[in-house]
Amino acid sequence: RRVRLVSCRSSGRVIASRHAGAAPDARPAQKSIGSHGETLRSTCCSVTFMTPWLFVARLPTNHDITATKYLLLEKAKMASQFGDAAFPLRDKTPTSSTQSSGSRTIPALTGIRFFAAVYVFTFHFGASALDSAGAPRQIATLLHNGFFGVSAFFVLSGFILAHAHPKTFSSSIDYFNYAISRFGRIYPTYLFALILALPLAIESLKPKSALAVLFMIQSWGGAISDTGYSWIMQAWTLSVELGFYILFPFLVNRFRRLSQRTLIAFVLIDAVVLIAGALSTIRPGTVTSGGLDITASQNVPSWLLYVPLPLTRLPEFILGVLFHCIVRDLPRSPTLRTNIAMYLVTALTLAVLSSTPNGHVVSIATVLVGGLIALIYKSEASGFTAFLGCRTLRVLGSASYALYLLQGPLHAYMLMFVASPYGRILALPVTVVASIAVWHFIEEPCRIFMMPFRIKDETTDVENIKAKLIEGRP
Q: How far apart are CA 151 and CA 194, in angstroms?
C-alpha cells in the first residue's frame, strides 16, 4: 500500500523524535532506533554459536523498522488531523489477530486453581479418613474422585496457555521466549520441592529415577510403570505437563486456522475419546507391583496402560486449547443465560463426581469443566466470577502450584513432628501458608528474574503501533 505523506519533513522530525523520546530532531531519534537494533543483532550473534536453531527467522533491518515506524506515525498524524474518512486506517472492528487477549487476566480462573489443588489434597489425605468415619456414600465418592483435580489442571493449563499467547508462534525467537517463560514459571518451585522432599526419599531413590525426576521425564513411560511417583508423588503431573508444553506451539498454530464449526467438531471428537477411554483416571502405577489390575472399577482399556502418559492425557490439554480458540473472539459480557449455565454446569459436575468412581463417568466431568472454564471466560462480571476472582482466592490460586507440589512433603513432616491427630488436622493450613510464602519469595521472583533472558524482537514495537492504529488510538 502507498501512504500519502502530506506533511513537511520538519513535522516528520517532530513525530519521530517524540516517539523516540528525544529532542525534535529526526536524526538523533533514528540513530537511537538504529543503535537499539545494532545492540539486538550483536546480542543475537553472540548467542548464535550456542543455539544455532534459534535464529531461523530473519530479523528485520534497521531501515525496515525505522521506515515502518515513521510511515505508521505519519499516517496516524494525518488521520488525527483530517479524520478517519480522509485517511482510513482500517476497519476498527477488532479481529482475532489484533485483539490482545493475552493482556487481560482472568481472576476467576485463578481461583479455580486453588479449589483443584485442595481437591487433590483431600483425595490423598482425607478420603480414607471419611471412609473410617462412616461418611455418606456420595461424600466419600466425591473425595475418592479427588484425582479429578489433576484433569481440571490439565484442561485449565491448555486454556490459560492459549490465552497467555494470543499471537501465532512464527519464529524461533517466539519459541525461545516461550520456553524461557515456562522454565521460569515451573522449574524453580519444582526444584525447591525436590530439595525439601529429599530427606524423605533419599533411602528409596534410585540414581536413574532421580535423573528422570530432575529432567522432568519420569512420567514419559506408560501408566503400567510407577516411576512417575519417584521422589515426590505429585510431581508426575509436571512431567506430563512438560510434554504438553512442548506440543503446545504446534497445536495452537494449527487450531487457530480452523473455523468455528471445525473447532466445535474437534471438541466433540475430543470428548468422545476422553469418555470412551476413561482417560481422566489413568496415572502412573495403575497396575500394582503385585499384578493386580486396579482399573477394573474404572473400566480403563488395558492397552492404554502402555501408551506414554503425556499422550494418554493429551486430550484433556487439547480440550482447553480448543475451548479457548472457540470463545476468544466471542463478545464477553455477563448475561442471565451465562450465569445460569455456570451454576448448572458446576452442580452437574459435582453430581457426576459424587455418583460413581467409574472412569467413563469421571471423564464426563472433565468435559463439563472445560465448558465451565469457557463460560467463566465469556462472562466479564457476575456473582459467580466475582466470588472466584476475589482477592483472597486470587492469592490462594496463585499459590496453588506450590500447594500442589508441597502437599506430600509437608504432610509427611507434620506427621513426623506433630502428634496425631493434630498433625493431620494442621497439615492443610500449614501447607497453604507455606505455599503462599513459596509463591511470594521463590516462584514470583524467579519468574521475574528470567524475564530479561527473553530476546526482544523489534518488530513487536511496529506491531503495537499497528494495533493502536487499528483500534483508532494513534
A: 23
Looking at the DSSP bridge assignments, the partners of residue 308 are 222
- Provide the grid cell at 63: 531501515
pLDDT beneath 50: ranges in the chain: 1-69, 79-103, 288-297, 473-474
CA 75 to chain CA mean position, Å = 37
Cα–Cα distance, 193 to 314 (Å, whole number): 25
Give the single-character DSSP code of 443.
Answer: I
Place of cell 510511515: 71
Alpha-carbon gap, residue 430 to 432, rounded angstroms: 5
- pLDDT tens-place string over residues 297-327: 456 777 888 899 999 999 999 999 999 999 9
> What is the radius of gyration, based on Cα positions, of the chain?
26
- At residue 293, φ and ψ (nearest 5 deg) are -80, 110
Spatial separation of the C-alpha atoms in residues 113 and 394, rounded to whole Å: 9
Structure confidence at residue 102 (pLDDT): 45
Q: Are 258 and 292 in contact (CB under 8 A)?
A: no
Q: Which helix (H) or strand (E) holds 3?
A: none
pTM: 0.76
The answer to whether the CB of 378 falls within 8 A of the CB of 327 is yes
Segment 191-208, tens digit of pLDDT: 999 999 999 999 989 999
DSSP-based three-state secondary structure for 308: strand
Pull the grid cell for residue 118. 485442595
**Cβ proximity of 304 and 282 under 8 Å:** yes
Q: Which residues contact 44 (CB under 8 A, 6 or more apart)?
A: 55, 59, 455
- Phi, psi values for residue 168, rounded to 5°: -70, 140
Distance, CA of 109 to CA of 375 (rounded, Å)? 11
CB of 235 within 8 A of CB of 193?
Answer: yes
Read off φ and ψ for residue 381, nearest 5 degrees: -150, 130
CA distances to 160, 471, 474 from 192, in Å: 24, 44, 46
